[in-house]
Design brief:
4 strands; APC_superfamily; transmembrane; two-stranded antiparallel sheet; AA-permease/SLC12A_dom; mainly alpha; Amino acid/polyamine transporter I; transmembrane helix
């Protein structure tokens, strides 16, 4: 039977096309995830940020500035995750952020939100596989020119694991997340007897030119760069929590999303907040201290080296790679579901939402996301600068910028959903309510401002702008005329009266 038949109802500048049952039969998913799997999916997606990335904030804010930045960002993520914990069981669709915005801001609002999240979930695994390549290059002594081989190999292995089946995906996610947390806990217990907070965490001063300088004996200011430095460190603190919001993308593969989704995401953010503050305190409080960590590409490994020496550095590096693998694997999962949901509804080319005939995984969406990420990485690597610092910084900044806009849109969706759809069933209600959503928006806006104030971040913003331009042109010319009444679209068009039906 043909997938597409005649044009259906139009409105808001978009056109829906009728599809027969075979359309959704080719796009089926399989339910498997419970609370433990969802917790692992959320924590695993973020955990690499506790191994590397966050530490660059020490160079702009000092330890105290980074602490304040982490508190602000933790508040933003609490507001966001509790808002999502309310919205996701009320709208248990794979679309997640796109679905929330589509229901409250129409097709264009849904598409723009989905496009922001698309940048985050395509680029974030690229950042992580870049760090994996850096670690593996150090372990095996390969040249910098060999890095793209690690990137391609990483994508082949972990896209492959995600394609095999949702059961294997979640089992691998649980195992690598537990191993990554075990690595972090092992570091905490190793660091506590060796910590000297005043000597090492406070060893950053300010030079005559305003740049950070090392204080040989420590004892520096809590806020060497003042409150401005603390605010400037916020984009780096994001890396301690980035991607926890991906959990609703697994809604249609969750056994009971209305019960398990809020539990999984709340347990996840609590785990990450504890780990974030532990790593911030302990990693900086041992030799070589905050100053050295502020420019390190492998801060956790540097901490292990300070405690155990260089003799077992390669073994320790392999341990550190576990955390990167946990996030890489889980965000590839999210990337596939995010592309799948927009494609199934017609916003992206529909072929990308076809799932594997027997595995019932969105294999085409995951492969497409991987190919786009590798193209972006290679363009920067070969066309802009063959420099680890530039490619890592540019990719990270693109991911964070896309995420911040997505958070603003999701928080706004929460507020509008309460206003426009007060009648829908809400199995869970956020204790922070509208106040939490407003704080999320305000902190995200401040973070964006300080991203734009940093010249390194501007390159990433330009990249995101190009991404948005291509996506919007496609949707304006093609996508908006090919929409399909997927579960997200059915709910939105019925103004919340349509009962969710699993496909």
């Amino acid at each position: 039977m043909s997938e597409t038949t005649t044009a259906a109802a139009s409105g808001g500048g978009v056109t829906y096309q009728s599809v027969d049952s075979s359309y959704f039969e080719k796009r089926g998913l399989r339910r498997y995830a419970g609370v433990a799997s969802l917790w692992a999916l959320g924590v695993g997606a973020v955990i690499s940020g506790h191994f590397s990335g966050w530490n660059f904030g020490l160079g702009v804010g000092g330890w105290g500035g980074m602490l304040i930045a982490t508190v602000f960002i933790a508040i933003m993520y609490l507001g966001l995750t509790f808002s999502i914990a309310e919205m996701s069981p009320a709208l248990p669709h794979t679309g997640a952020a796109y679905s929330f915005a589509r229901s409250t801001m129409g097709p264009w609002g849904g598409f723009i939100t989905g496009l922001c999240e698309n940048v985050e979930y395509v680029i974030t695994p690229a950042v992580i596989v870049f760090f994996i390549g850096s670690y593996l290059g150090s372990i095996f002594g390969t040249s910098e020119s060999f890095q793209p081989v690690y990137w391609i190999g990483g994508y082949i292995v972990f896209v492959g694991l995600n394609v095999v089946g949702v059961e294997l995906s979640f089992k691998v996610t649980l195992v690598v997340t537990l191993l990554a947390l075990a690595c972090l806990v092992g570091f905490w217990f190793s660091a506590i007897p060796n910590m000297d907070f005043t000597r090492w965490a406070l060893n950053i001063g300010v030079g005559a030119d305003g740049a950070p300088v090392e204080l040989a004996e420590g004892g520096g200011s809590f806020l060497p760069f003042g409150l401005h430095g603390a605010l400037a460190a916020m984009p780096f603190a994001v890396w301690l929590f980035l991607a926890i919001e991906q959990l609703p993308l697994a809604a249609e593969e969750s056994v009971d999303p209305k019960r398990d989704m809020p539990r999984g995401i709340i347990l996840g953010i609590i785990t990450l907040i504890i780990s974030a503050f532990m790593i911030l305190l302990l990693n900086a409080s041992i030799a070589k201290g905050a100053f050295a960590l502020s420019t390190s590409g492998e801060p956790l490994l540097d901490g292990f080296r300070a405690i155990y020496g260089d003799g077992i550095a390669k073994i320790l590096a392999l341990i550190a790679v576990i955390g990167l693998i946990a996030s890489f694997h889980t965000i590839i999962f999210a990337q596939g579901r995010q592309i799948y949901s927009l494609s199934r509804a017609g916003y992206f080319p529909r072929a990308l939402s076809i799932t594997h005939g027997t595995r019932k995984t969105p294999h085409l969406a995951m492969v497409a996301g991987a190919v786009v990420a590798l193209i972006v990485m290679c363009v920067i690597w070969y066309g802009v600068a063959n420099s680890a610092a530039i490619i890592g910084g540019t990719l990270l900044n693109m991911a964070v910028f896309g995420a911040m806009i997505s958070y603003i849109m999701q928080a706004l969706s929460f507020i509008l959903l309460r206003k426009k759809f007060p009648q829908i069933a809400r199995p869970y209600k956020s204790p922070f309510g509208v106040v939490g959503a407003v704080l999320t928006m305000l902190i995200a806006l401040v973070t964006i401002y300080f991203q734009l104030s940093d010249p390194v971040y501007r390159a990433g913003v330009i990249g995101v702008a190009i991404w948005f331009a291509v996506g919007i042109i496609y949707f304006a010319l093609v996508g908006r005329h090919k929409l399909v009444l997927s579960p997200e679209e059915e709910f939105a068009r019925s103004k919340g009266t349509a009962e969710y039906k699993s496909l």
